[in-house]
Amino acid sequence: MVQKLEDIVELGDLIRLDFKPGDKAVLMASRCISHEQGRRIHEAWERYAPGVPLLVLDDGMKLGLIREGD
After folding, report:
1. CB of 29 closer than 8 Å to CB of 58
2. What residues contact 45, with CB distance under 8 A and at least 6 apart?
3. Which phi and psi angles does 18 have, rounded to 5°?
4. Which domain of life is it from (predicted)?
5. Measured between alpha carbons, how far is 9 from 31 in angstroms, rounded to an integer?
6. pLDDT tens, 33-60?
7. How many CA atoms lie within 13 A of 62 on its CB side?
8. Cβ count near 31 (within 10 Å)
9. How many angstroms separate the CA atoms of 44 and 60, rounded?
10. 46 has which bridge partners?
11. In principle, which of 50, 56, 58, 59 could form an S-S bond with 29, CB 3.0–4.6 Å?
12. CB-based contact 25:49 (threshold 8 Å)
């Protein structure tokens, strides 16, 4: 199942987050981040939520998908 960008729920100030099986996280940064910053973010994420995939989008990037017809 593919979710559209509109399906991503912005969490705002995060205090607690409980992941369900199959969940993935998207971090949307408002500015460009360096390779080193990205590496540190992923390392910290792996300690916080081991096994939960994280995609980092920066500098106003958006993620989309074009799927070939079934």
Report:
1. yes
2. 25, 27, 52, 54
3. -110, 120
4. Bacteria
5. 20
6. 999 999 999 999 999 899 999 999 999 8
7. 7
8. 7
9. 22
10. none
11. 58
12. yes
